[in-house]
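Why should sequence recovery work at all? Because a backbone constrains its sequence more than one might expect. Tight turns favour small or flexible residues, buried strands favour hydrophobic ones, and helices have their own preferences. The token representation captures these environments compactly. In the example below, the structure is given first.
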């Protein structure tokens, strides 16, 4: 008469060893998962800025070669609202997300709540009106800039206490709000930045060369 095969049960020691190995694997994989997630957020943020530039370029081609002003002299709208209104109208630029490009995914970790509509700010260093007076309502005219690839345009900004949950909408080299105070290094100690030639790179807001790239706008 054949008997059923006997299966040896796990001993307590073997079970504890297995649990220990699984715990070790989890402890090793969790930091890797966080790193992968942070990397994905950095890529998504840089894509936001690249997509934003396509809209800005299209806007300039339809508006006498200028980008939206930090604060529109007529409507008072900030640059991102002007651009948002433009995005919501028929455009020749297709296939671009319309609702999320103003929000950096990594800002969910650094903003106190999730009410922000915008987490990027625009450089307005040294902008002057027709009378030669410094005026942040003056729009940037890219054709008049000689250092497109080394002039910082838009970057990650931190939450502003008086901005109703939004990030700072603009920054300057040293005058309030100063670049080093409001540009937020939320990507592993770096901030994503869009330059006037359309390229995006990670910068260190505290580095002197980053400040020089802000000042290039006013030179």
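From this structural description, the recovered sequence reads:
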């Amino acid at each position: 008469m054949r008997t059923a095969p006997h299966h040896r049960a796990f001993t307590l020691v073997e079970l504890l060893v297995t649990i220990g190995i699984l715990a070790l694997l989890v402890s090793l994989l969790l930091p890797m998962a966080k790193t992968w997630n942070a990397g994905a957020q950095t890529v998504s943020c840089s894509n936001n800025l690249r997509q934003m530039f396509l809209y800005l370029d299209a806007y300039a081609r339809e508006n006498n070669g200028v980008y939206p002003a930090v604060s529109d002299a007529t409507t008072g709208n900030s640059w991102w609202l002007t651009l948002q209104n433009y995005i919501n109208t028929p455009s020749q630029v297709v296939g671009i997300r319309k609702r999320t490009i103003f929000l950096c995914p990594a800002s969910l970790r650094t903003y106190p709540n999730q009410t922000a509509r915008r987490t990027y700010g625009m450089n307005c260093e040294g902008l002057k009106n027709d009378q030669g007076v410094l005026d942040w309502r003056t729009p940037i005219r890219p054709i008049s800039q000689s250092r497109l690839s080394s002039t910082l345009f838009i970057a990650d900004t931190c939450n502003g206490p008086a901005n109703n949950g939004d990030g700072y909408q603009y920054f300057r080299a040293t005058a309030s709000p100063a670049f080093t105070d409001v540009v937020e290094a939320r990507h592993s100690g770096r901030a994503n930045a869009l330059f006037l030639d359309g390229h995006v790179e990670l910068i260190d807001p505290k580095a002197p060369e980053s400040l020089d790239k802000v000042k290039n706008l006013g030179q």
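A few observations help interpret the result. The beta strands are 120-123, 152-156, 170-171, 191-195, 200-203.
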